[in-house]
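Handout, section 3.2

Students often ask what a structure token actually looks like in practice. Rather than define it abstractly, here is a full record for Glycosyltransferase family 92 protein. The first block is the sequence as you would receive it.
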Amino acid sequence: MAGALAHRQFQHQPPSSFSRLLLLLTLLPLTLASIAFVLQWRGGVTDPLTRWSPDQPQFPGMSFADSTPSRRTYDCTNPLSQSLNPSFPYFRDWNFDFSPHLSPKICVTTSTSAGLEQTLPWIFYHKVIGVSSFLLFVEGKAALPNVTRVLESIPGVKVVFRTRELEEQQAKSRIWNETWLASFFYKPCNYELFVKQSLNMEMAIVMARDSGMDWIIHLDTDELMHPAGTPEYSLRQLLADVPGNVDMVIFPNYESSVERDDIREPFSEFCNGKFVLQGLSGLPGMALFTSEVEENDSRSEQIMCCVFLTSVPLMTVSMFKKNYDHLPKDVYFGNYKESTRGNPNYFLTYGNGKSAARIQDHLRPNGAHRWHNYMKTPKEIKLEEAAVLHYTYTKFSDLTSRRDRCGCKPTKEDVKRCFMLDFDRSAFIIASTATEEEMLQWYRERIVWTDKALNIRLIRKGILTRIYAPMIIIQSLRESGVFSSVIAKATQTNLSKEKFLKSVDSSNSTRNSRSDMFSSRKFDAGRLSQATGRRILKVIDDSLPSAIPPLSPPNYDHADLIT
């Protein structure tokens, strides 16, 4: 009786505080989940962000992709053509004409004979990372009317032709009466180009200063700046952090390490034929493509393309060999033999980087790789993360194109007066004496990195590295129609786009008459800011009175001399 009474009393007791707490913890997540669902549900209302795309609803910077396997067909005949699915469609009519108030203002100058397939990606990539002005000293293919018409239509681009007036003006340069460049005078091929680049750089300094530029950089059109070390991937931000007492910034170069022998466009090549999307599990944002290669491709039956983010093929050049300055000494010399693979040096070509100079009084070039000052020894810093990416010998045709530009005899003695670097000399001899099959075999053995086990081992040790940013930027610009729209606008009053592109292709080996007539002097035979301190490798105080030629990286003979 008493037990039954106690049981009824327990049943009528109010819930304890623990029970209420347990109920609250149960209901709270459910309530929050419901609120989140309601907030995310748009009920068919158009998202304002879709207005970025004129073609289809997609978020800026994202490509529209179906989740189911599908086939896509790309126009692979023209490397500047627009993709069917633009990644950045709102770039289409953007000329990158930056505000004049942005600072610092950066000028890039070059001496080039390259066509639009190389110069357009090169220009717009550097515009994206913050370059304001371009001074292009053109000749050969780059000086053709159909090419220069496009180049001159781009805001911030100044084209300088190699005319008789230019030759006469450069013939009066003080450089000819000075000794710092004298050892390069009156020699053919690379020496002649080196002098011509120096004379053009001297003129570029004056032109850049007159246009209000703060920094000047000399690059070739097979080189891309890599402003690593800044969250925005911005060359402008990188130079903005340089202390005011620094006159020159050295960018060590990384050299391309190609993995194929059939590359056509090293900056952002995409596969030929029809792509089949197969979905690559386990790797977010990536997909695996197989390509049915064109029947006329004699060196490959099938190409596997790995696509990163906005359908960018990873088959283009993405592997680079790091500079000695960015490697520990023991790692560099400990892997030197494996890294050279029987070649004369660690790099195929130069290893002493490029530089940016602050525009100021008495500035002068010091060869194609450095700047100097007539009145003082410039204060230099070398960056420990940022670099210049050098796309050298990335195409098999580079062997014959370099051969065709030089009239030297293919002997070991004669090539010394034509080329400064050992590998260039060997490549010229092979290209001049071997059959095409023998050249291809030599190219595969000396230049193409086909040993995947070796590649992975050197990547793990830090010798090789993967860099995708330039490829993604250039491929996105191409897919967005930036290059094709520039060509169309520049040629709409003269040629149709199809006829124009055809004329560019047919003029691949044509030289402008002005360039044939004239050539350079005909040759008969402080305290560092905290932001900068993170990226500076060392401060250089040595005086550099003579022109700095392209130099190879250190070899075993220098191991004991380097501290």
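Discussion prompt for tutorial groups: The mean pLDDT is 77. How would you have guessed this from the sequence alone?
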